[in-house]
Design goal:
It is a single chain. It contains 5 helices and 3 strands. 44% of the residues lie in helices and 22% in strands. Strand 1 and strand 2 form a beta hairpin. Strands 2-1-3 form a 3-stranded antiparallel β-sheet, sandwiched between helices. The model has no long low-confidence stretch (mean pLDDT 94). 27% of the residues are buried. By secondary structure, it is of the alpha+beta class. It has a single domain, classed as GIY-YIG endonuclease.
Length: 96
């Protein structure tokens, strides 16, 4: 089963959330709609600014754990490297 690691932001350079899922499109929708109580709903984190696919959910979980232990500056640099405009990548994943 494929796994995804993703980062969402409240705004460019704003509050960041790092997560892992096997269903990226559905999970992003859940964050945007505030389906679950928690961090992303509380802080208005709804922009998908980074994602990466992994061959297995196990590999994705390990990568997420690693990223979550990084300093914020490293996470920002990771987003900046692939998405310097901090565009919302939701349409990119929804339309392939």
């Amino acid at each position: 089963m494929t796994g995804w690691v993703y980062m969402m932001a409240s705004k460019p350079f704003g509050t960041l959330y790092t997560g892992v899922t096997s269903t990226l499109v559905a999970r992003v929708f859940q964050h945007r709609e505030g389906v679950f109580e928690g961090f992303t709903k509380r802080y208005g984190v709804g922009l998908l600014v980074y994602y990466e696919e992994h061959a297995s959910i196990t590999a994705a979980i390990q990568r997420e754990k690693n990223i979550k232990h990084w300093p914020r500056a490293w996470k920002v640099a990771l987003v900046q490297k692939v998405n310097p405009e901090w565009r919302d990548l939701c349409n990119e994943i929804a339309h392939g």
